[in-house]
Amino acid sequence: MRTVVIGGGAAGIAAARTLHDAAHDVLLVEASDRLGGRAHSLSIDALLSREGSKAEANPFPAGPNVDAGCGWLHSAQRNPWTAIAELSGFSVDRSDANWRTQWRNLSFSPEEEASSSTAYQEWNARALAAVDGPDRALSEFVGANDPWRPRIDAISGYANGANLSQVSLHDWAAYENAASDDNWTVRQGYGTLVTSHAAGLPIRLSTPVTRIDHGGRRIRLDTPSGTIDADHVIVCVPTTVLARSQIRFDPPLPNKHAAAADLPLGLADKVFLHVDRPEWPANAHLVGNPYAACTASHRLSPFGWPIIESFFGGDCAEMLEDGDAAAFAIDELVALLGSDWRRRFTPFAATRWRHVPWIGGSYSHARIGCVGQRAVLAEPVDGRIFFAGEACHREDFSTAHGAYETGVAAARAIIGGDAVIA
């Protein structure tokens, strides 16, 4: 009995690994020329060399990486990737993310921070108190004239990849009630960790599946390099791929395409800057403008390295995808640190996830009134076609560990085990 796993991200790798380790015949096919999907680590050495940066003389460790995609082990103590990292010899950094701390209180006084925190907690409480009622947009729980509304909107952009008006209360609450505040990092890169879990698996890269014919006794998968036969299929692709019908089903499965469309990928992008002589401690943090909805969350010197990772989300990221996000990030930092700093920043990488083929975004959120579409998307078809990925998880969507759990659950359903997602 052969299973083909479509998609080499966290879910697909987890599914294929589970099947392979149970001695099942499995093949993992990936449309792009690399594994990992939205878990993608970049070599700093290669990036700086490509840009011709003078940063090569700085004290980086051998083979340092930054994460273009997911970078945080969210809910780390129950996150399965944490245990995989530790068993595989990766270094897990348990340092505080410092998201609530403005380095040296620059343009964000302790009094302002306290006021902002209170406003966020009150908004959070109002939203959670309404969860038993009809679904609504998160924007309905903060006043239009609240001075901290833009900051709450910016936080929604980071967390959901979309601003408050686009995010379902019921969907957000499911995640919020399950998540914990332990957010850790992997020194070698989250993407490196995810792809390392695929070691030894049968894999075909650059093999997009364009049609799944499940009308006969065996399932036939159309690819540019020929047809692949299978007894079972696990579809582990981003919702954008299904919503755009990049994979067609024959007979059609319109409910799958509709569910994917109701679970769109929001957007989160990053800019990486080299810093000449940073003056802050490792893992410090700055928010660019606490009174603006379009602002970056700046991670200063992760792991003590002389770099800044500037993070944009939601409408702000959408606006900057076709603009100069690096210039925006530098302008924000110079406004906080002073004009002398401008010459000390050198951009060396920026992401544009909306434009990545076969991905087209960052992580899913449910449209208003559409939280039930996660279960529709995850439902198997005829006991032969299974679906996995972060968008299929009821609580841990938008995360690599949610993707992992759905991939394992789909594989276990084929093996004959328990397919219930924890």
From TrEMBL:
Keyword Glycosyltransferase: no
GO BP terms, alphabetized: auxin biosynthetic process
Gene3D superfamilies from the UniProt entry: FAD/NAD(P)-binding domain (3.50.50.60)
EC number: 1.13.12.3
Pfam families from the UniProt entry: Amino_oxidase (PF01593)
Keyword tags: Auxin biosynthesis
Key word Nucleus present: no
Reaction(s) catalysed by this chain's protein: L-tryptophan + O2 = indole-3-acetamide + CO2 + H2O
Family membership noted in the UniProt record: Belongs to the tryptophan 2-monooxygenase family.
Descriptive protein name: Tryptophan 2-monooxygenase
